Amino acid sequence: MNNQELLGKILPFIGIILMAGLIGWGLATANGNTPAGFAEGDQAPDFSLPMVGGGEFKLSELKGEKNVLLYFQEGIMCPPCWYQQVDLEKQKAEFDALDTEIVMITVDPPGALAQAKAQYGISSALLYDNSLSASAKYDVLQDSMHPGERPGHVFVLIDKQGTIRWRYSAYKPPQNGDHHSGGTGTMYVPVDFILNSIKTGLSAQGAGTP
């Protein structure tokens, strides 16, 4: 078989592979699952998610009205994640003074989340991201003890103009890449650090670490 005959047999297969790749890319983009900008200074990607207790939350509806603190967490199997929210709400007056609304996002069935919300006495908006669409847009699925399955303990501050002013992941995986052991992260961040980071972020000076 000469080179021309060989090339003639290979080219159709290359075309099929390329076409499959383009179709896959197109589907991911159409579904909104491709990670969008999430660095400080970027425009926050919009999303819409159902709220525990009824209704739909759409981020863009708060644009021009409120700063928003998105709090992604790992779900009902993580008690410290819920204690984090309890302590955030204990200092609600300070968040109100910064004109900042706290919005918690996690997975798990809505019925289980409703029970957890009642158990911990949470009053802030609680969204369930069962499709992982918002978690993917904000690229928080790798900041997690369950990478690719659940969002990790991540905070994202979005100002009234829709700009990301601060992003902080509480989970730091080990250098060997094993998310399930040896990480240096925590499932709780001091509330004073969060408040100070919001103040700093809103003044466009950036934010540090606790």
CATH domain topology of the largest domain: Glutaredoxin
Indicate the low-confidence ranges by residue numbers.
9-37
Distance between the termini: 67 Å
Order of secondary-structure elements: HEEEHHEHEHEEH
> In percent, how much strand structure appears in the residues?
15-25%
Query: Mean pLDDT, nearest integer?
Result: 80
Q: What count of domains describes the coordinates?
A: 2
Commentary on this structure:
The protein has 6 helices and 7 strands. With 210 residues, the protein is of the alpha/beta class. A hairpin with a 5-residue loop joins β6 and β7 (164-169). Helix content is 35%, strand content 16%. The longest helix is centred in the first third of the chain and has 28 residues, at 3-30. The protein has helices at 3-30, 79-90, 92-97, 110-120, 133-137, 191-202; strands spanning 48-50, 56-58, 67-72, 100-106, 125-128, 154-158, 164-169. It folds into 2 domains: 1-28; 40-202, Glutaredoxin (3-Layer(aba) Sandwich), CATH 3.40.30. The strands form 2 sheets. It has a 5-stranded mixed β-sheet with strand order 5-4-3-6-7.
